[in-house]
Amino acid sequence: MTMKNNMVMVGEGVGFERIRRITGYLVGTLDRFNNAKRAEVADRVKHGLSDQMEQL
Amino acid sequence: MIQQIVKRDGRVVPFELDKITEAIYKAAQALGGQDRSMAEKLATDVVAYLEQKGNEIPSVEQIQDAVEHTLIENGHARTAKEFILYRSTRTRVREMNTKLMKIYEDLTFREAHENDVKRENANIDGDTAMGTMLKYGSEGAKQFDEMFILKPEHSKAHREGDIHIHDLDFYTLTTTCCQIDLTRLFEDGFSTGHGFLREPNSIQSYSALACIAIQANQNDQHGGQSVPAFDFDMARGVAKSYRTLYRANMIKALDLEGVENAEKLVRDAAEKIEAENGGLWPAMDAQNGYTELEFALLAPAAGEEAVKKAQAFARRYADREIDRHTYQAMEALVHNLNTMHSRAGAQIPFSSLNYGTDTSPEGRLVIRNLLLATEAGLGNGETAIFPIHIFKVKEGVNFNPGDPNYDLFKLACKVSAERLFPNFSFIDAPFNLKYYKPGHPETEATYMGCRTRVVGNVYDPSREIVNGRGNLSFTSINLPRLAIKANHNIDFFFEQLDQQLNLVIDQLNHRFKIQCGKKVKNFPFLMGQGIWIDSEHLGPEDTIGEVLKHGTLTAGFIGLAECLTALIGKHHGESQAAQNLGLEIIGCMRKRMDDESAKTGLNYTLIATPAEGLSGRFVRLDRQRYGSIPGVTDREYYTNSFHIPVWFPISAYEKLRLEAPYHALTNAGHISYIELDGDPVKNLDAFESVVRFMKEVGIGYGSINHPLDRDPVCGYTGIIDDVCPRCGRHEGEAIELEKLQKLGLYRHLNAQTLGCCGNPEEEADRVVNPVE
After folding, report:
1. How many CB atoms lie within 10 A of CB B178?
2. Is B649 at the interface with chain A, CB within 8 A?
3. Which CATH number goes with the domain that contains B474?
4. Quick check: is B590 in a domain?
5. Which of B184, B297, B381, B495 has the fewest Cβ atoms within 10 angstroms?
6. What is the rounded distance in angstroms from the CA atom of residue B330 to the CA atom of residue B338?
7. Are residues B581 and B515 part of one domain?
8. Residue B670 and residue B663 in contact, taking contact as beta carbons nearer than 8 Å
9. B650, B736: one domain
């Protein structure tokens, strides 16, 4: 808690938590990932849901 | 005249001729030599040689060089060779010691964010005292095992990155994981090794003891712990609680009706009904006849009208209370599994709960409330990291509208869209369905932790069940390296793969023999309490070799995508030819394991390796050797098992369709996940359609990833890009307290709630994301 212009301020230096699945389990923050896994998470692309059901 | 020498650590100490004599004599002795006086003469020659070179205070290395030179000069070539061998072994030991000390130094003086070793596994906090202590032990054990336990060829293959022996630090100590049958454990109570616990009598105690069992077992093994049929196990606890609640309400109601001795009447009636009707209790499903029997017993003493009213009251309140009690029990369980310590406090237990197929009212109540407690999150609304939830999908049970647990499947989809759990397992996948016997939850294929699967049983085909069994150890093969070495020659690749599989099987067997020599007393909970199948028949001093045969010995692999790219220039996401070759490769690996099983009667199986610590290790070693090869060694990680590379653009459906056939081949475990864009909560139909698609294409185990962020300051959970959608704060930025108060946060303003605390009530009610 800090003061700024006579206003009470909170949250200075507090980051956002990014919860991600690591290999099958979850990790509450990317800080715990090893370097390789961090790189892998950064590379992940989204998978679209365009309708490919008919391809079955 | 030489008076002093310089030791390796720089100290100058008096010279002793005897030490040289001794070294030469020992080398000669190894070859059968007996002539000590010859050794003495050679030692004086060594000194003469050194003095002739003008070396007044020689170093140890210089003396050793002089010994080699003198032996060879004097025609003792074989002794010289022996001496050189001894010298190089000592050098390697010394280097290992130095390397270990360097690792210890980094563990001691560097923080986790700058030390990858401390972050090898994300679920261990390497910055804590106990986390670091575990790492000292682990790194020391690895070096010891490499030097003194492993066969040299296994040690070399592991060290050089041809294979990776997982959990090497535990090589001589224990096995990986186990699927715990809680129902059996709770019967007549159990001991954790530190105290005895009575058979639990309420759902709260059931859930508390479930956590304790997971925690105790985790300390006997190096992997995770799984409960294969959590709903069935907990249902009994709900039934016991319901009995208690119904009875208590019945007593209160009759008492209020003015009935004398209500407590004694109700209890006597309950005892009589139970004794005469094979343990009949008041059940959530009011159709079991208890109400009628109770009415008949109580009416004569208490009056028909009063009993009828009391029964209606007891039913109404027990129904309401059992729901609340079960929710609280599940809430406590989720909290416990995220906070209780294991392994000296460095970790919380690595827990997995499988459920979804119990259709009894009690089992359904467990499933629903576990999902709701997970949806609500932890104390400040945070997403719970453990347990791993696995919702077992089964046609006729919960998959289609009209199935008795279809509503729970829908709820599971919703919770997963919000909280990333549950994952989904598919009993209808043909390779799982073949074990399934309706009414026998122990035949429902389940998954542990990241993906491990143990159900088939070559050792005892009469017990192809999940309970009490687990993986013993696993070792992964570096597929991309084999492909790089093959240099586009497919036949050569398969030859090399076969040799590598032979090596891995030999190594798994070597480890298995060590594991077999352990005794029940080494595993006070796992074996001492009969968690592991058949261990209840063993005494503390018995070895566990026979019962371990129910476990699996497993080969794994990493980087199929890079392997295919190295072989034919394309991975299986971009070419049908690559997909065909990929299936051929993994099929070949599976066949080799099946053949070994048939030969030995042991459960040799194939896993799609989870590869957390390993994902970077192999590629680092391969890049050093072969340089940066596009699509193969040019990233910081090898792609997980048979997955399509994470960076490759592909639709969710296509990815699942291509990965599904590998699930059928990897009988020791597999998982596929897809990355959904946006907030899936806003499109639950799409989420469910992906899960349904998984089932249709034959996925065994799958989950859906989506961005899940949280602002600890205002408590918002959802997607946060640069700015928190609720409070408008940037990362790391301070915000006016008044603004948070206007949003309805921090109503109970005090120092403790400031800074990192949202409002749990508000979080639970969140429907639309409020943006100012």
Report:
1. 28
2. yes
3. 3.20.70.20
4. yes
5. B495
6. 12
7. yes
8. yes
9. no
Phi, psi (rounded to 5 degrees) for B472: -90, -50
Tell me the residue range of the domain where B74 lies. Answer: 4-89
Residues of A in contact with B655 (CB under 8 A): 47
Confirm whether B477 is domain-assigned. yes
Interface of B with A in 664-693 (CB under 8 A): 671, 673-677, 686, 689-690, 693
Q: Which of B43, B66, B89 marks a domain boundary? A: B89
Number of domains in chain B: 4
Residue B276 has pLDDT above 90, yes or no: yes
Per-residue pLDDT at B42 exceeds 50: yes
* CA–CA distance, B248 with B251 (Å, rounded to integer): 5
Q: Name the residue facing A47 among B613, B651, B709 (closest C-beta).
A: B651
Among candidates B454, B353, B388, B423, which has minimal Cα distance to B666?
B454
- A46/B contact by beta carbon, under 8 A: yes
Interface check for B738 against chain A (CB to CB < 8 A): the answer is yes
User: What does the pLDDT read at residue B98?
Assistant: 81
Partner-chain contact B123 A25, CB within 8 Å: yes
Interface test with A, best of B110, B118, B123 (most A CBs within 10 A): B123
d(CA B374, CA B409): 15
> How far is B394 from B412, CA to CA, in rounded Å?
13
Chain A hits for B452, Cβ within 8 Å: none
Q: Does the distance separating the beta carbons of A12 and B119 come in below 8 Å?
A: no
**pTM of the predicted model as reported, rounded to 2 decimal places:** 0.85
Contact between A12 and B733 using a beta-carbon 8 Å cutoff: yes
Asked if residue B594 and residue B498 are part of one domain, the reply reads: yes
- Answer yes or no: do B715 and B676 share one domain: no
CB proximity B711 to A under 8 Å: yes
Question: Among B740, B739, B720, which residue's Cα sits nearest to residue B730?
Answer: B720
| Digit-coded pLDDT (tens) for B197-256 | 889 999 999 999 999 999 999 999 999 999 999 999 999 999 999 999 999 999 999 999
Task: Specify whether B241 is located in the same domain as B298.
Answer: yes
Q: At what angle do helices B560-568 and B479-486 cross, to 10 degrees?
A: 10
| Chain B contact present for A6, CB below 8 A | no
pLDDT at position B746, please? 60
CA distance B237 to B208: 11
User: B502 and B638 share a domain?
Assistant: yes
> Which of B33, B67, B89 is the last residue before a domain boundary?
B89
What is the rounded CA–CA span in Å between residue B53 and residue B342? 62
Q: What is the DSSP string of B12-54?
A: EEE--HHHHHHHHHHHHHHTT---HHHHHHHHHHHHHHHHHTT
Residues B402, B428: Cα–Cα separation, whole Å = 17
The model's pLDDT over B723-757, given as tens digits with 9 standing for 90+, comes to: 998 889 999 898 888 888 888 776 555 434 443 34
- Mean pLDDT, residues B183-189 taken together: 92
B665 occurs within a structural domain? yes
Query: In chain A, which residues have their Cβ closer than 8 Å to the Cβ of B637?
Result: 36-37, 39-40
Asked if B588 and B729 sit in the same domain, the reply is no
| Statement to judge: residues B614 and B716 lie in one domain | no
Q: Is B76 a member of any domain?
A: yes
Q: Which residues contact B446 (CB under 8 A, 6 or more apart)?
A: B179, B226, B228, B229, B354, B390, B392, B425, B453, B455, B466
